[in-house]
User: Fold this.
Amino acid sequence: MKENKRTAGIAGFMKRIVTKYPVILFAFFTILLVAIIGLLNMELFPSSFKYALMFPQWAPALAAIIVVGITNGKTGIFSLLQKVSIKNSSVKWVFAAVVIPAICCTLSYIALMLTEFGQLAMPTFTRSIGIYAICLFATLFGSYGEEIGWRGFLLPQFNKRYSLFVSGVIVGLFWALWHVNLLQLGLLTFGLYALTVVSFSILITWLCYKTKNNVFVAVIFHTVINMCSLLLFENVLPDLSQMQTGIQIDNVYLYTILYGIYAIVFAIASVFVVKNLLGKRTIHQIE
Assistant:
């Protein structure tokens, strides 16, 4: 009996702490899980990075599940995961989640080719269809892991206190810091990348708002960004995946140019949706 009371007391204490500081504990669990999963990934499956399969991408999802599980139990976890269900998605907005990043990435590719190489050439594809299919599956898998955390959990948390626009910007900054390893490319490059990711976040926040917080559109947007970057730039830019194994890469200035172009192109796209987010207080229509 005393043991049961003690267990219940500890559980109650944890619930009160997590309820009071959900974002801080989400960040803590995310960092902890990234370290653990990343180490296991490097030791057991180092070649997975070549196929865009990065298991640490599921750290935000697992952190969100832990926090929601402590505060709301199985019901909360079910509600969180339900947000990424394809059943609740809209064809119209899924289409937008594909077209917007695809167009922006294509325009960025054209701009990079013209400014750096002086000519426009078609992308070259050196992998087999099967390998690209594996990359697509891996990218979709990783995007689910991140978006359950970023847009499924973190965005609504900030939206409890801030407007949709401000919440989207803050989540974008969290998302940029998530890629802190890119500091190896230099502070300027990372800064341009951070601006790009904030623009990504604004666009995704707008899509979530339009779909009443259906996070599946965020997963699709995220997947298209990553796949377009792979398809368009894998034979133009140095192999960034080598950074995961500690290998120094050359010609990093091309990343600076690309992220600068990305920052401009996606910022222009995000300007068109900002007016739909300013003054919009909540994204919780279905919660």
